[in-house]
Amino acid sequence: MKKIIFLLLLPLLVAVSCKTTKTSTTLVDQYKYDVQKKIVCENGAVVSAHPLASKVGVAILKMGGNAVDAAIATQLALAVVYPNAGNLGGGGFMVARLNDARLPDGQGKLVAIDYREKAPGKAHRDMYLSPTGEPQLELSQNGHLSSGVPGTVSGLFESAKYGKLSFDKLIQPAIDLAEKGFAISERDARAYNGLKDDFLKYCTQTPAFVNENLWKGGDILIQKDLSETLKRIKKNGAKGFYEGETARLIVEEMKRGKGIITLEDLKNYKATSREPHVFDYKGYKIVGMPMPSSGGLLVHQMMKMIEDKPISSYGFHSPEAVQLMVEAERRAYADRAQFMGDADFYKVPVSKLTSEKYLKERMADFIPGKASNSEQVKPGEIPAVESEETTHLSVIDKDGNAVAVTTTLNNSYGSKTVVGGAGFLLNDEMDDFSVKPGVPNMYGAIGGEANAIMPGKRMLSSMTPTIVLKDGLPYLVVGTPGGTTIPTSVFQTIINIIEFNMSTEDAVWKPKFHHQWLPDSVYLEKGFSNETKSTLINMGYKTRERSGIGRTEVIKVLPNKKFEAVADNRGDDSAEGW
Ligand code: DON
Fold first, then answer.
1. What residues flank ligand 1, with Cβ below 6 Å?
2. pLDDT tens, 1-43?
3. What is the per-residue pLDDT across 380-429, written as a single tens digit (0 to 9) for each?
4. Three-state SS string across 227-268, please?
5. CA-based angle 153:161:159, to the nearest 5?
6. Lowest CB count within 10 Å: 53, 274, 425, 491, which one?
7. What pTM was computed for the model?
8. DSSP secondary structure letters along 297-330
């Protein structure tokens, strides 16, 4: 009874005196809630891809939890209400700035938690090649063999070390949402209906997402098996996932579908705390994820490559500004292909790649008004290497704790394989490895030795959860899904705010662009002026219009210390606060 009351009261718990901007209203839940695109609040805020998940996060803050507690509960809720990317069977990264009373004023503890999936013990370099050496991307992108060993549950427990509330409290809303169900949106209904054949093809037991009659918006999705899995985690902690019944169900699923994840792989998986990747930009401190995410390093390279140029005087979306940023993107992504991979397995030359001298040299052949060429812009010279579905959430609380989490199954609904009897989707993250040197993955990214498959290795990621500090205190919490477009979206969002002085909503909602070295094209969202487009073409760029880039969630701390939380308007993403 208590649980039902909690769910019924959720919307009331968060309906408080925040200033809100509603740009769309969606009936996604039987309790009717609104998608909120912008709020300004005093006590704490959560922005995520689903309004119910953001509401869960804020309810946890109101119960006395801190930003880490809220981020954990929001992720668990997303695993239920946003199965396209929210997950138990995937992985992710958390970057946090935590208030620490033991440190001098204005200083906080910087934390990075890596719960990226790992290649199973039986994985090997050529596992996605045919006997004649042809890449078999169907195997790396769908079904049982595409899954890495999931990291999320271990990551949530590693994160919980920095929380205040018991894990029982954090997981209960997710259990309730799975058990009692929630009303799906039109968008969800279309996705489940569209993927019905895939689910039937890649699952060995019919999952909850398959409806014999077609789904429609407002239908209730109940996930009984998932609620049982969540209860086992509640009861037994991480062992409730990596050992016992859940592990047995995963391994049985693997056996039915010719997958290779074993009980030992699951038992051995451990999330890892790492040193965040930190750099300065014009007095701001940018805190990001280190390897195995390329995100922190790419944003570092791109921002430093433009730091000495008067970009703010060029103006937002001016051909000069877009060209400069595109050329920084091109050069950074060339380095990604060559040098970046799991640093536990491959020596990534981080200090060389970010040295002032190196980045100056990289931009030495930049010619304003003329496109460079990816055949000539090779990865940089590093002398003897020193021996599109994911989801992001941004959270802040009144005590100076800020948390950025990006988590994923890789593309939408991951491998499309639901673990029979356990009710959660497995990732298809193995495709983020380089399956063969020079063969593009599903995001067009290529790689080589640095990102080759090895047992126990983590595949290179682009996920870029980022916190920007000003005077040591949280200023921006930012991140997005979008495959290889993630670092460029984070780069542009930060530059939009810091250099172009844009409002947070303009910084997030206005069209973005992307260049990733290969293919040698500038991808533009709809909405660039004809003048900018034609000037770029005249400079020698191949431009291609494409669908929405990312779903960026930003929290900005205003001069009056209030929190301005903005959800991307490219989806049903929603900002909540109090
Ligand atoms: O880790 C990565 O870089 C990818 N697996 C992220 C995939 C992604 O963002 C898809 N979202 N649209």
1. 388-390, 408, 410-411, 429, 432, 461-463, 481-483, 486
2. 444 444 444 444 444 445 655 443 333 343 345 789 999 999 9
3. 766 544 445 799 999 999 999 999 999 999 999 999 999 999 999 999 99
4. HHHHHHHHHHCCHHHHCHHHHHHHHHHHHHCCCCCCHHHHHH
5. 40
6. 274
7. 0.94
8. HHHHHHHHHHTTS-HHHH-TT-HHHHHHHHHHHH
